[in-house]
Amino acid sequence: MSILNTSPCIQVGCFRCCLDTEMTLTEEDLKRIDALGFTGYYHEVDGYLQLVNIDGQCFFLREGRCLINRDKPIGCRLYPLILDVRADEAIVHDYCEHAKLFEFDEEDAKTLKQTIDTEEKQRKKRLERQSCKKA
Q1: Does residue 99 sit in helix, strand or coil?
Q2: Is the Cβ–Cβ distance between 70 and 3 less than 8 Å?
Q3: φ/ψ (deg, to 5) at 25
Q4: Which of 19, 40, 53, 106 is the most buried (most CB within 10 A)?
Q5: 3-state secondary structure of 24
Q6: What residues contact 39, with CB distance under 8 A and at least 6 apart?
Q7: What is the pLDDT of residues 48-62, one digit of tens each?
């Protein structure tokens, strides 16, 4: 599956994963979204960049649709594919009511793991910079 293909969500009108989201972002996500002119859509939580929720829904969710669907964060594009940390493998999240409509392949799993590695490296650098500023 191409991770850009989110038609199952659109086809069934589902946006459950956009409610009370804790979606993390890469710095590349920020650059792409900033270029669209948005501000105030993320905050930092323990060194992670995370989408903001407004009234319990993602900053970008309006009338059941994503304002930035073509440019949304990589984590949103991959969902409901998540990493089972204990087994270190990509799995389909059972929170998604329509998970059976998605088809993921090894490339998607590889992209997921690379994205998580990137977020962790970026978080570490961010925390190191903050530590240096405090010293």
Answers
A1: helix
A2: no
A3: -125, 150
A4: 53
A5: strand
A6: none
A7: 999 999 999 999 999
